[in-house]
Amino acid sequence: KIIFIMQIGGNMKVKLNLKNVILISSGLLILLLVLGISILAIANKKPTAAFYGISERNVEKISSVLQTTHTRKNKKAAYNIVILESDISLESALKKVKRPDILFIYNGKNADFAESYSKKKNISFSKDILEGMSSSVIKSVNSKNEKVYKVPLLIDNCEVDVNRGAFNNSKVKEIRVLSDVENFAQQIKKDYLAPIVFAGADNYEFINFFGALTESISGIDTLKQATNKLNEFTNSKNLNYIEFNKVVQEMLLVGGEFSKTAELLQKWYKDGIIPSNVYKMNSRDVKSYMEQNLCGVSFLTLSEHRTVKQRTIEGFTSVYYPSVSANVERTFSAPMIMAIPYSKNKIALDSVKKLAGVEYQEKLSVQTGLAPVQKNCSIPDRQADDVRYWVAASETPYVGLAEAAFTSDYTRKLFAETLRKYLQQ
Fold first, then answer.
1. I want to staple 377 with a disulfide (CB 3.0 to 4.6 A). Which of 53, 194, 291, 361 is the partner?
2. Beta bridge partners of 41
3. pLDDT tens figures, 298-357
C-alpha cells in the first residue's frame, strides 16, 4: 500500500493512497477534456442569420451570398438560416427563437427595436463601414456618433411599370407628372380591361403603395405627419379598434393627411381606370394581368418586379412615382434591407463588413435584382441603376408606410381594411 503525503500550507499534512490519486487525476483529465471540447464547440459554433419580413425569394438570394462570406474547415454552410414569423412584431418573433448573430430586416419600426438592442449591448461598427455609400443612404442610418448599429445593404423601391405597347399607341409622350398617368389610363380604357392595377388585397403592398402615392401627391412632410399620428395608436399595447378606425377616417376626410390620395383613388375607381375588383387583387393577380396584356399601368415594388416573367417585364418601362408637379423636390419611398448585428460573433461581424463592400454589393445586387447601396459597384440592369440614382439624388429615402407606422400584420390589416372600405364609397 503506497501512501502519498501532501503538505498544504503550514504544518497541515494530507495522506492520499494510490487509488485516491488515480481518481483525482482521472477527474482532472475529464474536466480538462470537457473544457477543451466546450472551447472547440464555441470556437466552431455556426453563427445564425435571421430574416424578418423579407420575401422568400430574397431570403434565398441573400443567404446564398452570405454563405460565401466565410469558409468553414468542413466546407459545410457557414450559417444557420432562420426565418422569423413576420405576422407578429419582431419583439414577439425573437422571443420564440434563440438570439441570432445577424438580423436582416427592412428599415422601419421593427428595425428600430432591433437597433435599440444592439445599442444597449454596444454591438456596432465604425463609420468606415458606410464608406462608398450615397449621402442619402448614409442618412438613413441616423448615426449621431462614430458608431453604426445597422448597415444598409440593398434598396427596394416603389415603382410604376408602364406597358410599352399601350404607351406607344397613346398620345401621351412621357410620364412627367401624375396627371400623365391618369391621361394615359383614360386613353387606353377602351382597349384594356384594367388601365391601372395594384395589389389592393395584399395589406403590406397596398399600404406601401398608398404611402408612396401620398408622398408624390402631398409631399414627405404630410406623409411623416400621418406616420407619426398612426404611431401614436399602433404603439399602444391596448389598441382600441373603434378609436383607431375613427382616426384613420379623419385622416381620409377633406383636410386630412390622406385626403388628396383618397380623392384621387376614388376618382380613378369611379372613372373605371382601376377595375372594380382592384381591392380584391393580390400580387399574383397583378402579374397575371401584366402577362396577359390586360393592363396599361402596374404599381409594383422592385422586389415584385423581379418575380414577373422576363418576356412579360420586357414589355414594360419602369418609372418612379411622378409628383403633381415636375419641379417638386422628392423623397422617394424606397424600403431598404438592413443588416443589424445582434451578437459580437466575429464571423458574423466580418460577414456584414464584407456585404457592405463593393465586391459583395455586386453579388447581392445581381442575385436579388435590388439596387446596391454602394455608389460605384456594378449592377445587373438599368432598373437597379435607376433606383440607385433616384435615391442618391433625393433626401433620405422613406422606409415605406407599412414599416414606418406598423410592427405587425394585425395593425396593418386594421389600417388596410379601413382604407378599402372608404375608397370604395
1. 361
2. none
3. 999 999 999 999 999 999 999 999 999 988 888 899 999 999 999 999 999 999 999 999
Quick one: how far is CA 310 from the chain centroid?
Answer: 24
Q: What is the pLDDT of residues 53-104, one digit of tens each?
A: 999 999 999 999 999 999 887 778 899 999 999 999 999 999 999 999 999 9
Q: Is 331 helix (H, G, I), strand (E, B) or coil?
A: coil
In contact, 197 and 281? CB cutoff 8 Å: yes
Task: Give Cβ neighbours of residue 36 (< 8 Å, ≥ 6 apart).
Answer: none
Question: 34: burial class by Cβ within 10 Å (0-12, 13-18, 19+)?
Answer: exposed
Mention every residue, 6+ apart, whose C-beta is less than 8 A from residue 295: 163, 192, 193, 194, 195, 196, 197, 286, 289
Cβ–Cβ < 8 Å for 189, 195:
yes
- Could you tell me which of 244, 233, 208 has the C-alpha nearest to residue 223? 208
| Phi, psi for residue 319 in degrees, rounded to 5 | -135, 160
Cα(first)–Cα(last) distance of the chain, in Å? 101
- Taking residue 274's Cβ as centre, other Cβ atoms within 10 Å add up to 25
Alpha-carbon distance of 133 to 338, in angstroms, equals 13
Q: Which is more confident, 280 or 20?
A: 280
Residues 6 or more apart whose CB falls under 8 angstroms from that of 281 comprise 197, 198, 199, 200, 201, 275, 289
Dmax (CA) for the chain in angstroms is 111
Q: Which of 297, 319, 262 is nearest to 189 (CA)?
A: 297
pLDDT for residue 280 is more than 80: yes
pTM (two decimals): 0.88
Q: State the burial class of residue 292 (Cβ atoms within 10 Å of its Cβ: 0-12, 13-18, 19+).
A: exposed
Question: Is the pLDDT confidence value at 121 over 80?
Answer: yes
Half-sphere CA count of 205, side-chain side, radius 13 A: 25
CB 217 within 8 A of CB 264: yes
Distance CA 111, CA 103 (A): 9
CA 7 to chain centre: 67
Angle between helices 346-356 and 358-368 (to 10 degrees): 80
- Is beta strand 80-83 parallel, antiparallel or unpaired with respect to 151-155? unpaired
321, 198 in Cβ contact below 8 A? no
Residue 5: CB atoms within 10 A of its CB come to: 8
Grid coordinates of 107: 428599415
The two beta strands, 80-83 and 48-52, are: parallel
